[in-house]
Amino acid sequence: MGPVIGMTPDKRAETPGAEKVAGLSQIYKMGSLPEAGDAARPKATLVGSESADDELTNLNWLHESSNLLTNLRLGSEGLPMVSPLYDIEGDEMPSFGPSCYQNPEKKSATSKPPYSFSLLIYMAIEHSPNKCLPVKEIYSWILDRFPYFATAPTGWKNSVRHNLSLNKCFQKVERSHGKVNGKGSLWCVDPEYKPNLMQALKKQPFSSPQR
DNA sequence: CCTCGGGTAAACATGT
DNA sequence: GACATGTTTACCCGAG
């Protein structure tokens, strides 16, 4: 992957003050993501509120998601054993389009995996027992399944976090107590967006963009 | 050509 | 202070 050219600090510093102004349109643009349905569900803050614990322990939505998975006739795990390197948990190949993991095999060990970060995160979370993971665990999962990242530039973690924060598919669940090392929240997949993710996963033709 | 999704870098805030 | 985590902004690129 080539260095993202044109992202030099110099360039960024070009517009010291005007940047803000110009940024406004950008902000609005961002705000127009799937924000519409968001008004009713203020993302993390909602989960982090008083009922957070209930939400978490309740896991009602997880049941929902289970149904979703069932409805979509995915594997027991609801996911393909996505990673090419994924050979654990039985070889029960889900009824997923083979395009997902068409022989990326060892290739993915050294080359960039054919999945977007959002999908990687999704897979990581879905493979966890509780369907919730702290970023650290997400890192681990990705590293574990895609050794490529072991040698990849450190920026990928930033990208993961960036995705978690920005992507509405993921919900942050504050840990009310027993903070593991005092840091890190749990991240879950918003059941509302799960179908989207699964669809993306199914499609994922990924002709290896290679940038 | 424009929009959008995705990727990357970086600044900044916060907590341990 | 260092580090991890989380948020936000900005920009680039490719696909549709």
Kindly describe this structure.
This protein has 211 residues and is mainly alpha-helical. It has a domain at 117-203: Winged helix-like DNA-binding domain superfamily/Winged helix DNA-binding domain (Arc Repressor Mutant, subunit A, Orthogonal Bundle). The protein contains eleven helices and three strands; from the N terminus they run H-H-H-H-H-H-H-E-H-H-H-E-E-H. A three-stranded antiparallel sheet has the order 1-3-2. Helix 7 (117-127) crosses helix 8. Mean pLDDT is 57; it is low at 1-78, 80-108, 176-182 and 205-211. The structure holds a DNA duplex (16 and 16 nucleotides). It comes from Mus musculus (Mouse).
Poorly predicted regions? 1-78, 80-108, 176-182, 205-211
Mean pLDDT score, rounded? 57
Distance between the termini: 5 Å
- Give the strand order of the largest sheet, numbering strands 1, 2, ... along the chain: 1-3-2
Query: Sheet with the most strands?
Result: 3 strands, antiparallel
Number of strands: 3
Rg over CA atoms:
19 Å
* SS content category: mainly alpha
User: Can you tell me the CATH class of the domain at 117-203?
Assistant: Mainly Alpha
Shape: globular
CATH superfamily of the domain at 117-203: Winged helix-like DNA-binding domain superfamily/Winged helix DNA-binding domain
Question: In CATH terms, what is the fold-level topology of the domain at 117-203?
Answer: Arc Repressor Mutant, subunit A
Q: What's the helix-strand series?
A: HHHHHHHEHHHEEH
Q: What's the helical proportion of residues?
A: 40-55%
Structure annotation, total helices: 11
CATH structural architecture of the domain at 117-203: Orthogonal Bundle
User: Percent of residues in beta strands?
Assistant: 5-15%
